[in-house]
User: Fold this.
Amino acid sequence: MPVKPLKTLKAVADQAQVPLLTAYHALSADIPVDPAIRRAVLDAADVLRYRLNITIRDVGDQAGVSIATVSYVLNNSAPVSDNTRRRVIDAVEALGYRPNITARNLKASETRMIGYGWHNLQAGGQTNPILDRFIFQMIAAVETHHYHILTFSQDPDNPVRAYEELIYTNRVDGFILSETNQDDARIKRLLTLKYPFIAFGRANDTWNFPYVDVDGRRGMALVTEHLIERGHRRIALIGWPEGSLAGEARLNGYRDVLHTADIPLRPDWIRRTINDVHHAFEAARALMSAPSTERPTAIACVTDVIAIGVMNYLEAAGIQVGVDVAVTGYDDDPMSAFLHPALTSMHQPIDTLAPQLVNVLIGQLTLRNSDAAKKRPKVQLLVEPELIVRASSAAPHHE
Amino acid sequence: MPVKPLKTLKAVADQAQVPLLTAYHALSADIPVDPAIRRAVLDAADVLRYRLNITIRDVGDQAGVSIATVSYVLNNSAPVSDNTRRRVIDAVEALGYRPNITARNLKASETRMIGYGWHNLQAGGQTNPILDRFIFQMIAAVETHHYHILTFSQDPDNPVRAYEELIYTNRVDGFILSETNQDDARIKRLLTLKYPFIAFGRANDTWNFPYVDVDGRRGMALVTEHLIERGHRRIALIGWPEGSLAGEARLNGYRDVLHTADIPLRPDWIRRTINDVHHAFEAARALMSAPSTERPTAIACVTDVIAIGVMNYLEAAGIQVGVDVAVTGYDDDPMSAFLHPALTSMHQPIDTLAPQLVNVLIGQLTLRNSDAAKKRPKVQLLVEPELIVRASSAAPHHE
DNA sequence: CGTAGTCGCTTAAACGTTTAAGATTGTCTT
DNA sequence: AAGACAATCTTAAACGTTTAAGCGACTACG
Assistant:
């Protein structure tokens, strides 16, 4: 009876009347074979309109078992005798077989992909050094779980669209969000869609969703305490414009400590600026242009970039950083250790934080499949940054 | 005759004896329905072990046509009467149907994914501002073609492994490479595997592969010409350590112009340093510690970061940048416009370059499917950077 | 009036996996 | 000696698309 000729390597080998493995070698051109045989195989492939593509079926043919058995061996999902196991593994290696992820994903209805909305280039094109490190660690972390990151762009005017598109087309299993804000539309939408995600950063307190964040309030508190410990009582702060979550948290840390230390808050010593050297330069000028009794002796900055601007101004004005006036940054940009003087800064433990964040998300994903009854655990993790004291704030202050 | 009960929305609706659309509303919980009906539908779904997931079959059921017709309508791949077309589109909208990309990809044996090996964090953790902008533009560009970027990490000791893994598991259709080097193992492997890719940067001249690059030699030539035009003849250069392609290209541009202008090359005025502020500071110190007749009047730097270090030193040494000594950077970091003085730099046209690069790669991919006979076009594009003159080199020089 | 062609749709196979259910063999128990 | 059972393997369905091939019903043409 004429069996329907499948488009498999075996069909080609039969047609050319050679062993399956020979046909493979002839087609893959990796290993040289007799030219005549090669010709025969190529012709056979041509007739059958076959393009080399090793599937589980070819492995089965080579090992003399069904495709199910191959699958069981590869996934260890059913007992197989040592003998056949051996044959299957040999066939896999001889043919260089790798399972097709797309087919596997279709069957499992998952994608093993996690979406990450690329951060918008900041005003002035500044890149965020924290995010760069975060992405790097995040990619490495998901790969240990055999997931991959799909990076996509989000329209600043309508970030939600990109997320919906990826969800509806089943492109990703979940999301990692960064640069969250108070009433983040993305978080809101993902919550109503009940789609798995985790945020690097917090939002609205009334929403209950998994996140990992660095405690900015505590961080700036530590900075302020450090400055007080060094003898400063006239401490200014240069923060971001209003409306940023992280910005307000850091500002509150500053306020907390001043209050505890019974140092009155001076509104004119709280400046706000966008995150670039030039604006920071001007903010410092504004702070220091007061009569000398009205000037701060320490300036805590909300980022290292701002701190650089401040240091630039102080140097230009002949004020010695770390001696006359202390300056601190935040985020511990790699560059900061090499400034003159080296910049005191808060170090964020991204390297340990990113893997934790990924673990939570992937825990959610695997749980979702196995045990739909269990509600998703709302993991909310707040880690503490670490103060790195350097020369810019090292010297004790004396009135 | 008892038809095999498929796990479709229609099956659930029939079981609950409600219209398909009602069943959808009851299950999706988006639109409120009568509680009794909702209960009935939920029970029916429970019995049939059905989880809401709208497929092309549901659309067909709702529109009263076969799944093939739905596909034809959605892809415009066969003529369909206006009447049925209307019904299908209505059904799609009513059910919020989106095609499952994984299934489509399996059928088409493509992934619509492009792999991008994440750059290694540089020594000292410096990020490359050019790459950041490049990635951003690249992501946006592939999305206009309905592709996505899969970012993965590459082991510095064996970068090829990650590429092979992605190829063998059919994760991506092609690659975009950055940070190429002379004998790039990745390029070599991809060439022998005949896998589609394009590089942002060049390599070995003997290899013939598609790339897009910015002409660093021409760029540094422009910088040097600019300095000569401003009256300088004592021009130093601070470059990268040996072995970097881009570094040597830029160095050659400097050499070219000095040679043309009949200015003898002074080896002691060519310094090499890694890309950080601190080392650049020291390099500048070394250059300027010679007796004043042996000092350069202009320092061309191979990056903006190095230029910042140089400017830091000059300021610290009481030398006025842009007046006593000219300084130029390279790459036009967004920060550079805001330095004091603002830094002259070479601007790389990433915004136009990234889309071009993506076009070439995707051209290759689509061509591959339709017309395997045609050899891949070896597009090699070299674009010119643009000199942005600012205060750090603006003033004409007078001996 | 028969037949060829066109239009509009359906049927069914295919993409490459996973896995529930069934088949075959051999061993053990009574 | 025969049924029960375990071990090992195969069969076939399913995941959700795309698309070649087929099939009625009309229209047009000789």
Summary: The CA atoms of residues 231 and 398 of chain A lie 7 Å apart. Chain A has 15 helices and twelve strands. The two ends of chain A are 103 Å apart (CA to CA).
